[in-house]
């Protein structure tokens, strides 16, 4: 039995509580974003059944999904569908690029995929000139008719602004 408050228990409980938490909210017409832990088929079906859309990150907890998306984007070379550059803030400049595709929609073993995406974030620290690059992959149930590449990138960015601002409070208040 897991120790109360252990990382394993927290991860397990987060997956189990997602649907009950959403069940008391009016999510119709909304986009539910989640990090890789909640990239779950059951949750995707539930969200679409309720008339909402999902925006999920793909990582190794869904190994095959992650490998299929990353492999696709590693083997194509086209210009990013959309690029955004932030004004310098806190001593850094960030450039974000997104590539989107519908070519994987019928191939991925995941319900209701409207687009798969790759996001590249390059951060340049003004003081040192050092650059860091982070690449993330994901899926959304929104088709290109419902969300342009710019909107998919905006959904991705909004997820992390919420995640970063709420995570500390949730961890401390709800253990």
* Proportion of beta-strand residues: 25-35%
How many domains would you count in the coordinates?
A: 1
* Mean pLDDT level: 86
Helix content: 25-40%
Shape: globular
Spell the H/E element sequence: HEHEHEEEEH
Count of helical stretches: 4
The tally of strands reads 6
Biggest sheet layout: 6 strands, mixed
End-to-end CA span: 17 Å
Poorly predicted sequence stretches spanning 5 or more consecutive residues? 161-166
What report would you give on this structure?
The protein has 175 residues and is of the alpha+beta class. It has one domain (7-174). The chain has four helices and six strands, in the order αβαβαββββα. The protein has helices at 7-23, 41-49, 63-74, 149-174; strands spanning 31-34, 53-58, 82-85, 92-101, 115-125, 131-140. It has a six-stranded mixed β-sheet, sandwiched between helices. The longest helix is centred in the last third of the chain and has 26 residues, at 149-174. It is globular and about 45 Å long. Mean pLDDT is 86; it is low at 161-166.
């Amino acid at each position: 039995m897991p120790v109360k408050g252990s990382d394993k228990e927290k991860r397990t409980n987060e997956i189990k509580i997602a649907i009950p938490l959403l069940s008391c909210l009016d999510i119709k017409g909304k986009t539910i974003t989640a990090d890789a832990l909640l990239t779950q088929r059951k949750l995707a079906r539930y969200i679409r059944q309720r008339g909402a859309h999902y925006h999920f990150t793909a990582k190794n907890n869904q190994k095959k999904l992650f490998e299929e998306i990353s492999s696709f984007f590693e083997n194509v070379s086209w210009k990013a569908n959309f690029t955004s550059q932030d004004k310098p803030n806190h001593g850094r400049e960030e450039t974000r690029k997104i590539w989107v595709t519908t070519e994987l929609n019928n191939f991925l073993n995941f319900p209701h995929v409207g687009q798969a995406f790759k996001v590249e974030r390059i951060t340049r620290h003004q003081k040192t000139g050092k650059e860091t690059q982070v690449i993330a992959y994901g899926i959304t149930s929104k088709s290109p008719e419902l969300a342009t590449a710019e909107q998919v990138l905006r959904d991705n960015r909004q997820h992390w602004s919420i995640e970063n601002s709420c995570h500390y409070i949730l961890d401390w208040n709800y253990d």
